Amino acid sequence: MTPPRIPKGLVWAVADPAERRYLLSDLQEEYDALSATRGRAAAYRWYWSQAVRSIVPSLTRRLRRRPRVTGRAWRGGDIPGSVIQDARYALRGFRRTPGFTAVALVTLMLGIGASTAIFTVVNAVLLRPLPFNDPEQLVTVSERKLQGDTPAPHVSPPNFADWREQNEPFSHMSVVSPTSFVLTGGERVERVSGMSVSPEFFPLIGVQVAHGRPFRSEEGDSDEERVVILSHGFWLRWFGGDLSALERTIALDDHEHRVVGVLPPGFKFQDGADLWTPFVIPPENRRDAMRGARYLDVLARIKPGVTFERAQQQMDALARRLEDRPNNAGWGIALLPLHEEMVEEYRRALLLIFGAVGFVMLIVCANVANLVLARSTRRLKERALRAALGASVFRLFRQLLTENVLLAVVGGGLGMVVAHWTIAPLVRLAPAAIPRLDEVRLDGAVFGFAMVVSLLTGLLFSLVPTLLASRSEPGSFLRVAGASTGRRRQRLRAALIVSEVALSMILLIGAGLMTRSFVRLRAVDPGFAFESIMTASLALPSSRYESPERQSAFYARLLDDLGSLAGVESVGATTNLPMSGSRMTFGYRIDSRSGEAAEEQLFAEYHATSTAYFRTMGIGFLSGRTFNAVENAGRTKAVIINQTLAQRRFPGSDPIGERLTVVSQGGPTSRQIVGVIADVKHAGPRSTAREEVYVPLGDDPWRFTTVVMDVRDGESNLRDAIQARLSAIDPALPLSSAQPMARLIAGWMAPLRFQMLLVGLFAVVALALAGVGIYGVIAYIVGTRTNEIGVRMALGADGDRVFRLFLGQGMMLAGLGAMLGLVGAFALTRFVRSLLFDVAPYDPLTFGGITATVLLVASVASYLPARRATRVDAVSALKTE
Fold this sequence. Notes:
By secondary structure, the chain is an alpha+beta fold.
């Protein structure tokens, strides 16, 4: 327990001089003495009880000695006392008008609460720096094709080795490879998350192990001595926090790993990992022939004093020096700040949602401003009397401003409560792929944001009404029905309603465009069937499945056993499941054109699949066939290509029978094309097709694969049955994951669904506020023109003409707001172009439908007070004159 200390600023602000010495020195000495005899906990409690007993009476005496505030206090310099007087007067006024106070506070509470809740997400994801030392110096390093559209999110092992030896701008470089391990030695076999990194990783991040030591450089050169570093949570869970765990061994993938370190509590990188092992590049993958195999993720730290631009220039020069190496021609090096790389996919969507909340806040301000105007109208005589008694214009202005700011601050405090209740559902609604969602919380930055928003809101919605009041002469206050003052207020209220309608129009059009995009995206054909597909991922430990022959035999038996399950129509396997985020890009060349240099630098996404994979996934063949048993066994080398590769590389001809030399984990291999399949959207429904090659899984097995099953009878949960068949083959091999394919599709749709729901919700709220505002303005006009209505009816006007008069005024305001909203939407929707799918930002159907909806709501809002105007009794109305 840390020693207590009262803040000196608090002591000097509230304590009498005689008590300062006691609080700042004597009390601390008494605490130290008591702590030695009775313990720190008891001394701690005694210390703060004594502090409170000293400070509270002193503060009370100071407040009692404060002189009474008079009308001249401001000129005398007693600013705090004058403000306190205004605040007390405002609170009494709020108690006298509970209806106004309740409506205004609820409106502010919802607006500020929603904006604060969204800001917590924006702050955690976009604004808060990464929890590492000098996070702005951390960058991801990848290869990029200088021309063309070949994806290059990764790095080849030989190029990484050259970069690490020849780079100038980086102090550290590391491979970062998420993985998983089969952990044995406990009560049951368990699969745990892990991360394989270069030994430079922890110095690169700037994190020191809490116990033990980090990796040594030689441990990244070979895996002869296998070591592991534990996360703090795993250390507590598996070893109970016992330091004797250091230098003990645990079995990972049937290999003994010696524990050499424990990470500090709270450390997490990206999605987190329980176990950390050194990343070792196999010698066969360091050959020049593997420069076309780009599959490594690389992280680096820029040296102190080197700018990001300078680092990019130096890496560009290095890329030019390595351009003469095999498969490097036309390739460059791309740097991207780590934080930007993590949030790039979600930045625009979060900012869009935050902007939508800003629009709602403006509408909230306009609505509360209308309420303030209506309330101030009823207080004209009060202000006239105060002005007649000598109150200055500035004094009246300050009184109104204090009332409104106090109202906004109280609404902001209630909004913080709403934000606290809203954060948890908001995080559950957000896509799980958004990084750092676990860090979303109310903190000092969020509290400061809420307070600033509250103050700005109070100033914004009170500025125009208070200025209007301050510009009026006392005589006009006494003439409550004065024409000029009434017209000025009506024009102001009308302008506020027009702005509300315009802002709600912009939000509704944005929500409409996103809704149409979502509907179009759901209708996209991904190139495979997913409604009845169950997936199960697994990873074979290298100790028991080191040879390709053993891996192929395991997959063959597993697929046969799973195919015999009840309700399973077909079973297949692949290394890279569509929309799973798993992708590999390898180089290839067309053998018949090997003399053409331009054709030697080709790259395609690489997949190893079983024979029945295409039938199970419902992927259609445009020509040719799937792999046969001979090709799956590797006795004949075969490859299947997709439609995009066939059209680009073999335009106007049949590629069946042509040969491609494809780079894989075993090096370049010449293969004959036996089939052409339809394009599959591996990178999500919004992605464009890339060149793809498929090789037989039995010929080129990988330790990491995903099994897919076509479950036609409606059975959706086969995890237990799959694990049982898997355990029958290998009892020490657990599943990595098992889930329906439809869940992966939903994951890709989640970001658009998230922004569509939130923007749509805010748009509906904005439209409701605008409708309430129109209703309030027309009702107010009806109330202030009761005498005029009586005169019109006395002179022969019927109810229909009166109804049309006031309905027309409401529709005129809505129409003007709709026109301004259309102009604003035309100007702003181009910024959301990248978030839309197959929908133009100026979609006429959306613009027309939203305009009709807004006018319909406005007509309903105007109808009710207009009908009430027709029920005015002419005789009673004239008597009120």
